[in-house]
């Protein structure tokens, strides 16, 4: 079993040779950093992920948390990992020095977090949820809320959750029923039930800060009536110290296919005792606040899917080099030595596909993280605005593409192992089970497709789309070698067809054919996603082709050749699969729309 979580050479290539992350140190916010400090923090993350997270990944999967005598019992290693992550400063890694943070760029923090998820997605869930919840309070909370909760969350004393989903309202948050009744004391009484809340109960931290969506009595119907509340498990005093129990309780633990180390909880609010909630920001703006944080969460999900795919690829690559089986098809001598399975072209196909999906997904998510950096720290205001628009447009793709193709990579990893891959003796089946969550949570991929085709493409008169095309042009023009130019041409031709199809879909939407047009939104997401990831591969190929000429060792030449071959795989084997999407979208195929429930 390999202990490589993410290939450090690849990560350095993507961060510095493709994206020029070092240039961020020229910005005021990151001026105290250098490539050395970025590398040092990445080194710490890699080491800690191996020592404190990977060490119990399999054990936490086999021995999942239990509800015993009103307490959640879990492996002590989970707390040790959480505490180590907090003590190393990662919880506040992206925040300013004023909040005790390291003021690291999103791109570097995302890379660091990649190691933790690759090592143990279940345990990594607790700190990631905590930072996301803390970020909501940091941006939208009032001073009192920040004083009471932020320091304790960023130090790891308290954890956080995101409590949106209800038994009858998952994709359709407009229909949530949890209610909030104002009191004369300034707080609200929360009543209702939430389900699937990750980290909703655990035995790691002194307190849990739930970020809860609820509707204030008399609020407008639908999403316009949703407000956001802080609901602590234990009440806190003015200094943020925990006191009496609040009326939020664990109704049950949910048992899952994967991600078993993260508790999944059904929570009840206000059933056994009054449950106090504290309004964040303005009433009825809750979903808007949540959605402003969704970019972060969705990039996180995409990143997780890419790196779990990556982890399975690393395992199966090592296995394929060791496992001896069969001979070349042309070898007739049965007494000749058997070859490692990596010598079979079909096994290389499966490894190349994994490499293309996981390194392509990683490139996409790092690009998304860089857009976040540009949105907040680019010195040019115009560029900040443009980065925000690009990020908004690409968020459904960054969430959905890796979460579609990460599990596909894991499926291929199982296949590379043969029978061994199907057993629990080897790690790749757990990778697949863990990764299978990613197309479901943070908005299913079906919902991402609707968001992309129904909203994001048309926002601001499609300004985001125009910016995207301009960005792509830069890399299309930068292709210099014959190989790269050929791929640039394929990408450019596919792009032109996609633009035409987009225009015709736009006309249908304008003409009121909403259901018909959006019926094939998933095809559009696949088309769009594959175009974007082809672009990511072109960027990598351009950088590799340029560096290859001056590479001064076999390992460097092999690295760049590997990048070019994986790019070739993507352009020869993957990009052409969008032809089917183009046909279905062009014809506005109505097979699914017109199928009747009674005909099944
Ligand atoms: C392990 C796990 C952890 C989770 N963690 C959290 C958490 O921490 N906090 C939290 O709040 N939630 C959490 N969730 C909930 C998660 O976000 C929801 O499961 C998800 O949003 C889907 O909602 P649902 O399960 O109700 O499915 P449904 O909404 O019932 O969807 C079922 C199917 O119908 C499709 N569908 C639904 N509506 C439409 C539509 N309008 N058009 C087309 N297709 C549609 C969906 O794409 C899906 O395929 C978690 C879920 C899991 C499994």
TrEMBL record:
Domain Acyl-CoA oxidase/dehydrogenase middle: 162-270
Residues in Acyl-CoA dehydrogenase/oxidase C-terminal domain copies: 285-451
PANTHER family the record matches: ACYL-COA DEHYDROGENASE, ACYL-COA DEHYDROGENASE-RELATED
The UniProt record lists the keyword Signal: no
Annotated Acetyl-CoA dehydrogenase-like C-terminal domain residues: 469-595
Protein family per UniProt: Belongs to the acyl-CoA dehydrogenase family.
InterPro entries found in the cross-reference section: Acyl-CoA_dh-like_C_dom (IPR025878), Acyl-CoA_Oxase/DH_mid-dom (IPR006091), Acyl-CoA_Oxase/DH_mid-dom_sf (IPR046373), AcylCo_DH-like_C (IPR036250), AcylCo_DH/oxidase_C (IPR009075), AcylCoA_DH/ox_N (IPR013786), AcylCoA_DH/ox_N_sf (IPR037069), AcylCoA_DH/oxidase_NM_dom_sf (IPR009100)
Residue intervals of the Acyl-CoA dehydrogenase/oxidase N-terminal domain: 39-156
Molecular-function GO terms, alphabetical: flavin adenine dinucleotide binding; oxidoreductase activity, acting on the CH-CH group of donors
Record's protein name: Acyl-CoA dehydrogenase
Cofactor(s) named in the record: FAD
Keywords: FAD, Flavoprotein, Oxidoreductase
């Amino acid at each position: 079993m390999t202990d490589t979580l993410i290939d450090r050479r690849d990560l350095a290539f993507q961060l510095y040779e493709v994206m020029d992350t070092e240039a961020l140190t020229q910005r005021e916010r990151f001026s105290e950093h250098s490539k050395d400090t970025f590398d040092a923090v990445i080194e710490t993350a890699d080491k800690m992920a191996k020592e404190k997270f990977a060490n119990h990944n399999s054990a936490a999967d086999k021995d999942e948390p239990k509800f015993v005598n009103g307490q959640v019992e879990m492996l002590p290693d989970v707390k040790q990992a959480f505490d180590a992550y907090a003590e190393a400063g990662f919880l506040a890694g992206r925040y300013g020095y004023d909040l005790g943070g390291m003021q690291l760029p999103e791109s570097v923090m995302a890379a660091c977090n990649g190691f933790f998820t690759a090592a143990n997605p279940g345990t990594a869930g607790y700190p990631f949820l905590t930072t996301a919840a803390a970020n909501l309070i940091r941006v939208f909370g009032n001073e009192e809320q920040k004083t009471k909760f932020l320091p304790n969350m960023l130090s790891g004393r308290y954890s956080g959750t995101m409590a949106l989903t209800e038994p009858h309202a998952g994709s359709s948050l407009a229909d949530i029923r949890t209610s909030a009744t104002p009191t004369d004391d300034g707080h609200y009484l929360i009543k209702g039930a939430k389900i699937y809340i990750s980290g909703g109960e655990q035995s790691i931290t002194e307190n849990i800060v739930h970020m809860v969506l609820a509707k204030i009595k008399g609020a407008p119907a639908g999403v316009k009536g949703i407000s956001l509340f802080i609901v602590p498990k234990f009440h806190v005093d003015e200094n943020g110290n925990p006191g009496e129990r609040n009326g939020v309780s664990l109704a049950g633990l949910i048992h899952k296919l994967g991600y078993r180390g993260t508790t999944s909880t059904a929570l009840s609010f206000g059933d056994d005792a009054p449950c106090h909630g504290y309004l964040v920001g303005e009433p009825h703006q809750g979903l808007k606040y949540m959605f402003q944080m969704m970019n972060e969460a969705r990039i996180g999900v995409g990143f997780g899917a890419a790196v779990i795919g990556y982890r399975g690829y690393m395992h199966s690559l090592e296995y394929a080099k060791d496992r001896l089986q069969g001979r070349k098809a042309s070898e007739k001598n049965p007494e000749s030595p058997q070859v490692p399975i990596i010598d079979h072209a079909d096994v290389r196909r499966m490894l190349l596909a994994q490499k293309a999906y996981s390194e392509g997904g990683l490139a996409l998510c790092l690009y998304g993280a860089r857009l976040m950096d540009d949105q907040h720290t680019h010195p040019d205001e115009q560029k900040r605005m443009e980065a925000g628009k690009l990020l908004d447009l690409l968020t459904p793709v960054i969430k959905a593409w890796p979460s579609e193709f990460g599990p596909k990579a894991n499926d291929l990893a199982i296949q590379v192992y043969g029978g061994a891959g199907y057993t629990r003796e080897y790690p790749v089946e757990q990778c697949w089970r863990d990764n299978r969550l990613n197309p479901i949570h943070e908005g299913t991929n079906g919902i991402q497709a609707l968001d992309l085709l129904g909203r994001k493409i048309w926002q601001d008169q499609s300004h985001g789309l125009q910016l995207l095309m301009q960005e792509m042009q830069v890399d299309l023009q930068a292709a210099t070698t014959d190989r790269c130019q050929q791929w640039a041409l394929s990408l450019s031709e596919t792009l032109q067809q996609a633009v035409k199809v987009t225009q015709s879909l736009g006309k249908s939407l304008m003409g009121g054919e909403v259901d018909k047009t959006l019926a094939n939104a998933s095809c559009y997401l696949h088309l769009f996603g594959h175009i974007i990831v082809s672009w990511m591969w072109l960027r990598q190929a351009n950088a590799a082709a340029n560096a290859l000429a001056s590479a001064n060792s076999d390992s460097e030449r092999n690295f760049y050749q590997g990048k070019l071959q994986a790019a070739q795989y993507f352009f020869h084997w993957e990009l052409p699969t969008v032809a089917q999407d183009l046909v279905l979208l062009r014809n506005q195929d109505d097979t699914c729309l017109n199928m009747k429930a009674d005909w099944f």
